[in-house]
Amino acid sequence: MQVKDDNEYVECLKKDDFSAFDALFHKYSASLYAFALSITRDSFAAEEVTQLVFLKVWEKREQIKEHLSFKSFLFSVAYHETISWLRKEKSEKMRISEFGRITDFQTSETEQSVEFRNIEGLANQLIREMPEKRKEIFRLSREQGFSNKEIAEKLGISIKTVENQMTSALKYLREKLGKHDILGLLFYFLMFHQ
């Protein structure tokens, strides 16, 4: 199957094309696993959540809206499944209390969209505040898709410097966005985790 964008995969998925499902699984499963692991701190739970998310994607494939971001939809489902898993685990009650503001998460899609836009604005502000070289390296990587080697060649610096700058940039974003509740952490994984 040739590489397609998410909307094309979703169209195929809605026609029961399992190869499209498989392509989306391979594209997003590692990020979903990392996201679930960051909340549950349990590798078994993260694996279970990842499997449940994709099971729901397959079961509800006909209801997925092509005009909306599949990635956002996927991480929203992952969020719900992760919280659901935490609630079901009696031994995890202490961890649930760490996420005290999380209750039923029954906000509408519009409210979620506004919250994501607010966090996106914060993320863009944080990127603008980075030191110039770090900001340039980060944007070449995340916005233009350059590899570390390509960035190093383009800027005339070592690959190690690129790696160090990217590590610092991602750590900074994760720390700052993580302070803005679970949606900040979700946005971090959605936009910056590969």
UniProtKB/TrEMBL annotation:
InterPro entries: RNA_pol_sigma-70-like, RNA_pol_sigma-70_dom, RNA_pol_sigma70_bacteroid, RNA_pol_sigma70_ECF_CS, RNA_pol_sigma70_r2, RNA_pol_sigma70_r4_t2, RNA_pol_sigma_r2, RNA_pol_sigma_r3/r4-like. SMART domains: HTH_LUXR. One of its GO terms (biological process) is DNA-templated transcription initiation. It comes from the Bacteria. PROSITE patterns: SIGMA70_ECF. Residues 127-189 form the HTH luxR-type domain. Keywords: DNA-binding, Sigma factor, Transcription, Transcription regulation. The keyword Electron transport does not apply. PANTHER family: RNA POLYMERASE ECF-TYPE SIGMA FACTO, RNA POLYMERASE SIGMA-70 FACTOR ECF SUBFAMILY. This is RNA polymerase sigma factor.
